[in-house]
Structure formats: C-alpha cells, structure tokens
Amino acid sequence: MSENKVIDESIQGEALMIEAPLRGNGKKLFLESYGCAMNFSDSEIVASILKDQGYTTTQNFFEADVIFVNTCAIREGAEQRVRQRLTEYKKAKKTNPDLIVGVLGCMAERLKSKFLEEEKLVDIVVGPDAYRDLPNLLLSAEDGNKAVNVLLSKEETYADITPVRLGGNGINAFISITRGCDNMCAFCVVPFTRGRERSRDPETIVNEAKNLFSEGYREVTLLGQNVDSYLWTGGGLKKENLSKEEQENATTFSQLLERVALVNPDLRVRFSTSHPKDMTDDVLYTIAKYENICSYIHLPVQSGNTRILEMMNRGYTREWYLSRIDAIRRIVPDAGISMDIITGFCSETEEEHRDTLSLMEAVQYDFGYMFAYSERPKTLAERKYKDDVPAGVKSRRLAEIVDLQLKHSAIRTKQGVGKIHRVLVEGVSKKSADKLFGRNSQSTVVVFPKENFKPGDYVNVLAETCTGATLIGKAV
Ligand code: 5AD
Ligand code: SF4
User: Fold this and answer.
1) Count of domains in the chain?
2) What is the DSSP letter of 375?
3) Percentage of the chain exceeding pLDDT 90
C-alpha cells in the first residue's frame, strides 16, 4: 500500500508494479506484476504454485532462472510498458541462454502469437485461469518448446490455493472473492481477458481471513471486478437456475461481508470494486452495523452523463448513480467515497464533459482514479463506435477532472482536521523516520509521531492539520 493518496492515472492502475522474490529444484523466480489489485493477488497464487515446485524468488532478474511478468491490458499505456520490460528481459537471455521468460495475465490471450512467434520475446504465455498448468508449461519450456495455455474457465477460483504473500507489510492483504466479469461495459477489455464471472466458496474466503488474522494481518480487502454480484450457490450455478429454497440458501455479498467481519473485531474489512447498478442497501446496512467494516466505498461512475453511460453499457443513469450516493450518505453518513472516471469516451461533447464535472461537484469524492479513454481490441466500443475525441481534448478534459478532484480531496481531508481517527498503523512514514502512517476507516492516510507504536496497532489520532490528502496529528 502506498502512503501517498492516489488521485491520477500516473500513480494508479498500471503503475502498480510489484517485484517479488521463490527456488525450485535449485531454481529462482523473478516475478513482476502490473495493473490492478486482482493481478497482484493472482501473482501471490502463482508464487504459491511455484513454491510447491520448490522455487524460491529473487529480487534480481539477472540471477533468475525464470522471469514471469503478470500483465495488464486495461489501457494501451499499460501494454506498452510491459513490452518495454520484455525487450529488456530478452537481453538478459544473452548472458543466461537457459533463462525462461513468461507472460502471464491479461495480455496473454490477445498477444500470444505475437509474443511467441513474431517477436520471439517469450517462452511461455499463460492466461489468468491457467496458472495450475504452470509446472507442466515450465517443463515443456525447459525442453525448448514454446508453452501456451490461455484457456479461460467458468469454474476456476483457485479457492484451495493459499497465496504466498508478496512484497507486503504483513498488515494488509487481498482476498479474491470473484473472478472475471459478466458486465460488458463497452470500453472494457476485462470480460475478454479474464472471462466469465464466478464466485469463490465463502468457506475458503472466511478461512483465508482467519489464517491471515492469526498470522498478524489486521486488514483484508475482498476483491472482485463487481463484488456486489458475488453469489455462492454451491458451485457454478446462476441464481435464476436454482429452486426457491436453493436461492434462499445462497450467500450474497452482504452475507459474505458479515461473515468476514465476524472473524475478529480487530480485523478490518475493505472491498473493491462496487458497481452502482448492483450495490444494495443491504451492503450499506452491513457496513453501518460493523465497526470493523471500513466506511469506504469505491463506486466508479465513469461519466456524469446519461447518454454516455448508456453508450458505455453501464446499466444506470446519472440520476440512479446520484440516488446510490444519497443512500450511502443516509446509511453510512461518515463514508469516504471514491470513483473511477473515463474522460473522452467516443462522441463525448463538451457539455457532456461538464456533466461529469457537475456530478463530481454534487458528490465531492474523497479520492478518484481518472483516465483518458483508450480504445481496446474486441470491446463493444471498438466494434461499434469511433474513438473520435482528439487526444488533446481528452488530456485537457482529464486535467480539468484531476484539478477538480484535487480540490475536492483537499476539502474532504480538511473536514477530518480537529477529529479523532482510529488509525491502523501500516508502517514508517516515507518522509520522516520518526513518524508512522496508517489509514482511517475512510481510507485517508494519517501521519503521526511514532512513540512506541508499531505496524498492526490501532491508534486513536487527533488530526491537527493536513496536506492535500493526508491528515497529520498525534496519538491521544
Ligand atoms: N480506457 C480508459 N480507462 C479504462 N478503464 C477501463 N477500461 C478503460 C479504457 N478502455 C478504467 C475504468 C475502470 C478502471 C479500472 O479502468 O475507469 O473502472
Ligand atoms: Fe470492466 Fe465494467 Fe466489468 Fe468493471 S464492471 S471489469 S469496467 S466490464
């Protein structure tokens, strides 16, 4: 987790890169991840599968026997960065001809033939649902064959695999609760790279949370592309195909949230990502009921204009979105709210852009992740619409949105000054070795003098001042 508040594309999304040090049969793996939290979480599953093969990890790719790059395809920029890295790794092969380089994750399906045959950049290509096949693929690659498995699955949730926690602080951990996405937002490549949505057995989720707590972790983030559509029906079946009794026995997201919250009152629970069309009041009441479920909701809006939302196939209008915000403010009054916005989507006019700005004014988000639209292959938008907003216009609109968000973040942070915040300590402040940092329930970073506190402690901090997005105070 970063101490810095994330508010624009330059620091979010594809910029998240985690290098993690495992040894197999005397072999070393260098594993690098790009993209979202889900990718990071997948890398921990990959590390677990290879650890079972006896691999250890290394931080130095020059001493690696195997390099894996877990890739992101959400925007073109993310893909370009990965390509650059692969070119560097190809050079490392000159000094170590036995080195195996593999591409994992979201870029695998689309670019398999390019990577393997045309550019000969890599030896292994593995999609997000095929990680169990890695040991076989590695054997095949060691024999000098190109190894590929990009099959997507309707069932795979890696539910039985205990992730190896990589590069973390021992305090926060991710737990995947669903994989894939069935929403088909017009701009989004995820349904193509990660396949159909499926939910993971709640028993395995709760057990993972219990184990993390006993290992000292104090915060878990439940991850899914659309957590609100989480539904466990005993394996694979859609709700509409079940009998009434089976439907009643199914586990919904709010029920899952409650079960995880009950693991221990000192285990904080977060979740991401909520979808405005599916977020129920039940979830909000559950947040309000449990102190250890954080009062923080990431609710991507994408656009403040109903025509654009319709073209984006988001399944809600501006008014519906605002009514969900009202529900949050009513049921969880102290909630921190953040968003994702895409600017410059196909045919977006100046007036429609201003609708996005006015929606931001109406909500006053605590934080935001803001992006210029980037056309992605196979998506509905690529097939149906023209990417016709000029790059210069997109970047100017993005700058306006980022500026407004900076202003709102500052206002929201300031509202926390003079109040006492329950902070879960995550580590030593980057700026000052005698200060600690952590986050309050709303996910705002709070910095305060170290005294005798340590990571994993809960500390009540009186905020005395603030910078744009950080509260500064002292323990009380
Ligand atoms: N262009 C720009 N941003 C995108 N996102 C998803 N697809 C695209 C795209 N083609 C953004 C959305 C999503 C976030 C994870 O990334 O805002 O919520
Ligand atoms: Fe993409 Fe929409 Fe699914 Fe999010 S909900 S992963 S934006 S298709």
Assistant:
1) 3
2) -
3) 78
Confidence tier at 109 by pLDDT (50, 70, 90): confident
What is the 284 CA–ligand 2 centroid distance (Å)? Answer: 21
Q: Is any atom of ligand 1 closer than 6 Å to the C-beta of 24?
A: no
Q: Are residues 127 and 273 in the same domain?
A: no
Residue 275 lies in a domain: yes
List, for residues 182-212, the tens digit of each pLDDT value: 999 999 999 999 999 999 999 999 999 999 9
Q: Are 50 and 139 in contact (CB under 8 A)?
A: no
Single out the residue of 283, 291, 299 nearest to residue 365, CA to CA. Answer: 299
pTM above 0.90, yes or no: yes
Q: Check whether residue 332 and residue 201 sit in a common domain.
A: yes
For the Cβ of 187 lying below 6 angstroms from any atom of ligand 1, the answer is: yes
Residues 9-19, buried b or exposed e (16+ Cβ, 10 A)?
beebbbbbbbb
Taking the CA of residue 374 as reference, the ligand 1 atom at the shortest distance is 1
Residue 431 CA to residue 470 CA, distance in Å, equals: 12
DSSP H or E stretch at residue 356: helix 350-363
Both 369 and 428 in one domain: the answer is no
Integer CA distances (angstroms), 295 to 7, 177, 221, 248, 268, in order: 19, 20, 13, 28, 10
Q: What is the pLDDT of residues 117-127, one digit of tens each?
A: 767 789 999 99
How high is the pLDDT of residue 16?
Answer: 43
Does residue 195 share a domain with residue 283? yes
Ligand 2 centroid, distance to 472 Cα (angstroms): 35
pLDDT for the residue 25: 67
Select from 106, 187, 274 the residue to mutate for testing ligand 1; criterion: most ligand atoms less than 8 Å from CB.
187
What was the pLDDT predicted at 238? 63
Protein residue whose Cα sits closest to atom 17 of ligand 1: 340
Last-in-domain residue among 390, 414, 438: 414
Last residue of a domain, one of 387, 414, 441: 414
325 and 435, same domain (yes or no): no
Answer yes or no: do 470 and 404 share one domain. Answer: no
185: Cβ below 6 Å to ligand 1?
no
Residues of the domain holding 305? 172-414
Is the CB of residue 345 below 6 angstroms from any atom belonging to ligand 1?
no
Residue 145 placed within a domain: yes
Task: Calculate Rg over the CA atoms of the chain.
Answer: 22
pLDDT in tens, 317-349: 999 999 999 999 999 999 999 999 999 999 999
User: Is it the case that residue 141 has pLDDT exceeding 60?
Assistant: yes
Residue 418 pLDDT class (50, 70, 90 cuts): very high
